[in-house]
Write a structure and sequence with these properties.
This protein is an alpha/beta fold. It has three domains: 43 residues, no CATH class; 118 residues, Aspartate Aminotransferase, domain 1 (Alpha-Beta Complex), CATH 3.90.1150.10; 263 residues, Aspartate Aminotransferase, domain 2 (3-Layer(aba) Sandwich). The protein is 36% helix and 14% strand. Strands 2-8-7-6-5-3-4 form a seven-stranded mixed sheet, sandwiched between helices. The protein is globular, with a radius of gyration of 25 Å.
Length: 456
């Protein structure tokens, strides 16, 4: 560890160590386990100049499979969608991409109005009454929603669906760990893939919240969501639903079947995959001041100026935020995804309600066409779950190791989906595949033919 201080004179080093109250340099790193510390000298290559670095990095990047160079059917929360050229043009305007937190409304009317329009569209889409101007992503939105329910209800037990996104599940557990609350998973039915209502009724006692996803991680529509709302509401708890916003062009919005809070991933609305980000966390709730006051993030409101004649926009209910409440704020969220929220607003405005419905139906039909075609492939059981699905479904491979099949697909520059065994050990040899508007019939046929070749 002394390598970092090798340019210090002994006298100078001793003064520094004395000042900070440690006896030697090693004590600075006492929290690092000995078994992971590097012993001896670092074996680093010689320094490169700028041109050499560019060439080296270029060779490393050539090893990657770029999204546009492969045919991918990987979704699992971030499905591929077409982004209209107008979106990039709009969010490339300097008024948007250089704008930070609009604490001074008199000079931030443009970004404030854009975010207000985004909030309005999210409320209309989800059938909720209030939306904030974004969270980091779906996972942190879900975690913050459960923390919000714990604050409002004062209980120490929450329920989450076993069939929610595994990464979101991990973030939820990380966010809630300091609160020392009980997190119980509600089992899913092994046949249909939906939440097991019987298991929910067994576990609901004293729960302050239930979080589900609809469609769930397996792509299956939770048709009994209204019954789940009744079950948790009878216990006095909060019903939280995670959604893919585009699916709401076809499916009933959560506000119409009893949701109190809705979260979701807004990257699907005009965002690029970009190795996973930036994301956009959707967060909305019904009109209940006990909920609204505890909502994380910032809310943009509309009012009038001093003349009472001109429309004006400003941040509202700011006592929830850190810059006023400090450690008593409702959340530690430090920024938001305002630029991506503007992109989502532009995307929804371009599509309109009819365009969004048309897109959702197209995705639904593409997925079901793919399901029919793949069901004709020998030793491929499609779908593995019987529940009705939206844009993703599960495939079980029989007589072949799924990892070997996956590798053969990669050789053909096809990513067939996500292997589920790592996240759901009970689902051995099961694949989750995603189909959206970017997948043509020709793409689907290419996938089918590839399966026929590797499933021999």
């Amino acid at each position: 560890m002394g390598e970092f201080f090798k340019n210090y004179s002994r006298e100078k080093l001793e003064k520094v160590l004395e000042k900070i109250g440690v006896k030697d340099v090693e004590e600075l790193y006492s929290d690092v386990p000995d078994e992971i510390k590097i012993k001896g000298e670092l074996n680093l290559p010689k320094a490169l100049n700028e041109m050499e670095i560019e060439k080296y990095v270029g060779k490393v990047l050539e090893k990657n499979m770029v999204h546009d160079e492969v045919l991918t059917f990987l979704g699992a929360g971030l499905p591929p969608h077409y982004v209209p050229a107008a979106i990039e043009s709009i969010i490339s305007r300097s008024e948007f991409y250089t704008a930070y937190t609009p604490y001074q409304p008199e000079i931030s009317q443009g970004i404030l109005q854009a975010l207000f329009e985004y909030q309005s569209m999210i409320c209309e889409l989800t059938a909720m009454d209030v939306a904030n101007s974004s969270m980091y992503d779906w996972a942190t939105g879900a975690a913050e929603a459960l923390r919000m329910a714990l604050r409002v209800k004062g209980k120490k037990k929450v329920l989450i669906g076993e069939n929610i996104g595994p990464d979101r599940k991990n973030v939820i557990k990380t966010y809630l760990e300091p609160l020392e609350c009980d997190i119980l998973e509600v089992n899913y039915d092994g046949v249909c893939g939906r939440i097991d209502l019987g298991d929910l009724e067994k576990k609901v006692k004293d729960a302050c919240a239930l979080y589900i996803e609809n469609p769930n991680f397996f792509g299956i529509i939770e048709k009994d969501a209204a019954k789940m709302a009744d079950i948790i509401h009878k216990e006095g708890g909060v019903f939280i639903v995670g959604v893919d916003p585009i699916s709401l062009g076809l499916l009933k919005p959560p506000g119409e079947y009893g949701a109190d809070i809705v979260v979701g991933e807004g990257q699907n609305l005009g965002g690029w995959l970009n190795f996973g980000g930036p994301s956009l966390g959707i967060f909305a709730c019904r009109w209940d001041m006990s909920l609204v006051r505890q909502m994380p993030g910032r809310i943009i409101g509309m009012t009038t100026d001093l003349s009472g004649e001109r429309r004006a926009f400003t941040m509202v209910l700011q006592t929830r935020e850190q810059h006023i409440r400090r450690e008593q704020a409702t959340s530690n969220i430090c920024t938001n995804e305002a630029l991506m929220a503007v992109a989502a607003a532009a995307y929804l405005a371009l599509l309109g309600s009819k365009g969004l419905r048309k897109l959702a139906i197209e995705i639904f039909e593409r997925a079901h066409y793919a399901c029919r075609r793949l069901s004709e492939v020998k030793n491929v059981i499609v779908p593995h779950f019987s529940g009705e699905f939206y844009q993703e479904f599960t495939l079980k491979l029989v007589g072949e190791d799924i990892n070997r099949v996956f590798d053969r697909m990669i050789e053909r520059k096809i990513i067939p989906g996500l292997i589920l065994t790592k996240y759901f050990p009970k689902l051995d040899n099961v694949l989750l595949s995603c189909f959206t508007e970017v997948h043509s019939v020709e793409n689907i046929e290419k996938l089918v033919e590839a399966f026929k070749e590797v499933m021999v």
